[in-house]
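Researcher: Good morning. I'm working through a list of sequences from a screen, and I'd like to move beyond sequence-only analysis. For each chain I'm collecting a predicted structure so we can compare shapes side by side. This is the next one on the list. No need for commentary yet; just the structure.
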Amino acid sequence: MSFAIAERWFEFERLGDGITRIWEPHVIRLMQCNIWHVRGRDRDLIVDAGLGVASLHEASRHLFGKAVTAVATHSHLDHVGSLHEFAERLAHPAEALRLAAPGPGASLRRDDYPPALIESFERAGYEVGPTYITALPQAGYDLDSFTLQPAPATRLIEEGDVIDLGDRVFEVLHLPGHSPGSIGLWEAATGVLFSGDAIYDGPLLDEGGDGDIPAYLATMRRLESLPARIIHGGHDPSFGRERLVELAQAYLKKRG
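Model: Good morning. Structure tokens for this chain:
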């Protein structure tokens, strides 16, 4: 199949409150991760790192006024592709092995994954075409050259740990279910939650090798009671507390 060449690979949206959403418009919705940049007084924060088809660090350099801490909310392909580009990398211990040694299985082609896995995505409500991208980042890009680079965590973070940007402090919440070491970052002072794939306003995935429905139910009960004002998820648009409760209750009704 033939592909157009993308004019630019990343898009940027400043949301206010020092937060910028970054995303890859030429990646299919299933794999189109929200990448979050948070400006801090002493250092900046990157939450998740996209698919890694093009350099996130190079494209986002205009945002970085100081040192950057990159956090992986979990180790799935669409969230860690450019993680290796950052010198400081934080992740939960349950995701650390896959980050350090991602193995040879990453691909941009549907047919390189087990049919049962693709079927689980489609059953959840995602449309999966022959490739995970709809354009090329530059002329001559070879889809078969795509791989995940090792990105060993430089610091392991668990429930209750904090990430201090100088004027902003985020608490780590362990939110398993989508994956064993899925985490969120909670700023109690502002009511901001970066939730990764624990919850977002789209079809949630709890099947496959990493899914754990009982753990996910416990996570949803926790999120239902969290006094979050705004939730910035791993996919799809941000939303408020009312929608958070609706999404959590819908999952609990479906799986509980």
